[in-house]
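Annex B, item 7. Sequence and structure tokens for protein A, then protein B.
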Amino acid sequence: MGAVGRLKFLLRPGWLALAAVVAGFAFMCFTVLAPWQLGKNTRTSERNSLLEQSINADAVPIDSLLSGTGPAPGDEWRKVLATGTYVPDSDLLVRLRSVEDAPAYEVLTPMVVTDGQTMLVNRGYVRPIEGNQAPPVPAAPTGLVTLQGRIRMSEGTVEGKAPLNEGGARQVYYIDSGQIGQFIGTDLVNGYLQLDADQPGGLGTIPLPQLDAGPYLSYGLQWLAFGIMAPLGLAYFIRAELQERRKARAAVVAAEAPVEAPAETPAEAPAAAEAPVTEPAPSAQPAAAAEPDEAPAGDEFQLPARRGLLKKKSKTPDAPLSQSQARLAHRYGERR
């Protein structure tokens, strides 16, 4: 059977489904899952680098960063000073936030800086009432204030997460200058200002992120390894199936083969078939057993040469003893 014939079992539905699952999983590992984790690792590393640079840096006037379209991505986390006035009655709540492992609302208030541009200010966080209800928010101070904080970039949006009015407060899911500007009808500078502690109008201070790269790099490498291991696992199962089929075919061939009788050697066959039957030679015992009628001269007596003659009793009647034999029988106590 050729190689193509041995692999025809792979066309069965079960094997085709397994191959499709393995191919899809490997594709997702290389194109979605691994890039997702590796991308998070890259972004976290860049954020940590910017934070390290800004921790000991002096604050700069925000006007130097607002030229053109606003702060650039490389300006994120820079410490700045902003002078301007809060827009009254313009607070917004950012939903579904977690601060220090507890649910929270973040409070955004637009601020008009001295050059006339309007920028969002993240004043901090407040805790919800009864787990999910928005609490009353303290009003921002009026008049000219100077704030110190850090530049942050817009977070972007997700389809289906539009701003809404709920519980008497305007609420959003993401801090995105473009979406919020359309919602409140104001042109906003790209990005926003996150206040440091103890600033005018500040609420609960949002802590800075930890300078830790996290496990994203190891997760990304694991997904790459899984994408490689999945096809290798499929190849292992195919090889195991081929080995089992080869063993099964060998067992069937061995069971169908005829059983041959053991061959006889040339020396054994003629010897068993043609060996002549020979009759035993006449025994010489009667001649040896015959004794002379007369004993030799003198008193000498010769015992028979074959022990079998001593044990075997003659069936013929005893012959009369001669004088010499009688003397010997009397001497030795033997009698024929």
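Protein B:
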Amino acid sequence: MKLGHGLGLLYPPFARRASTPAPTLTAVSPDWGLVGGGIRVDFTGTNFTGASGATVNGQSLTGFTVDSPTAAHGTVPAATGSTAVALTSATITTPGGTATLTNAWTYLPASPSLILLSNVGVTGTTTITKWADQSGSSNDFNQNGGLAAPALITNVLNGLPAVRFTSSGHQSLELGDGVAANYPLSRIVTASAYTYYLMLIWRSPIGTNSSNSYANEAVWSDETNGVFGYHAKSSGPTAIAYQFHGADLHADQTIATSTAYVASVKYDGANLKHWKNGGSVATTASGNVDSVARNLRMGIDFTQSIYADLDLLAALAFKTAHSDADRGVIESWLGHRGGIF
């Protein structure tokens, strides 16, 4: 074969340089952070060699580093205008082009008092001993004895695990060390204003309860009342009612068995508002939480035998009343994580 002459000896006449392959972006972890930024985020994909930068919400990561052809990382900047943003895109740019992953990142409002996620921070499987708070507030829930512990169940909802409480053995986890003086309810919410969110699944129908129209089966309880949360209705279809100690505030919502929901409550100092899967449900003209120091338990069926199971996938709480825009951001993020809406 004739290779040519002079400088043409470097290449055969029909040789072609190999093209740079296009990158792909398949995952961003974690998929959330606070509006103040500053958190490390890891990108996973292919063909990252030579990447010049990456973004979330159109903003460049600082300290961007390519770790390998399939991994890179950087630090997320603060959200523009310190505004919460739901399910924004992430990108990575290489010599082969730019890859985009939609619904990759969410900026949550600042200063949550509690973030529990079933796919991180859970110690134990058949017997959970700790569910670690991811908010930085150290509001971990522990199994402190006295009541049985829940179990971690894998692949409950679109690949996500869940912390499963059953009515067998009065299962619970307690805030902190279980001593009210050390870990009162006020660590999670304030009496004047708060917002909280749960992603949950009822797993079985409930039985009857002759002593009260609402069985004492709380997701959040102060050992005396259903402080924070959810009670199972004693007849008819499986349902939940919001009830707060110091007040008898019921807002019935029919909940189908084995269906996932994102539910949220906001108290703005005047009105207690409830939502389920993004839709407004009810407004009640009261709802402040008793400020007395109480030990907060998370669990199921403290005093009744009503035969319902509960899968809890996430819980978030804030000591402020969110705007409806911020509430929508958090509900969208949780709903997307579970594939609910």
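Comment on protein B: The longest strand covers residues 97-108.
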